[in-house]
Amino acid sequence: MMLRQRIHKGVSQEGYVLLESLVSLSLITVVLVVTLPLTVNLVHKLERQRIDVEMHRAVYDQSKFWSANEKNATETRSYYTQLSVSNTSKGIVAEGEDNQTIQLQIKSVYWFP
Questions:
Q1: pLDDT of res. 32
Q2: Which long-range contacts (CB under 8 A, 24 or more apart) does 75-79 make?
Q3: Hey, which end of the chain has fewer CB within 10 Å, N or C?
């Protein structure tokens, strides 16, 4: 009689462990299904903002040496993207790899003596 109780106790415990494993696996799957798209979206958004900051930095660097009479262009390769920054008669234009453009229009300049 005692042997039969041990056998039943072992079998029911093994079934419980299997059921517990399946429930925990399904919970982990649900959490991943919910959080993975959010994480991918967040990483894409951060990359986009990083490129925007690089473009604005390049425009700022070019604005230090801007002159209405000079037209020149520089190619800048940063860690994230390749930028083309050029002077025009009215300001500065920065173009990124994926047709993103930032234009800085300069309306007046006061040169310090």
A1: 95
A2: 78/54
A3: C
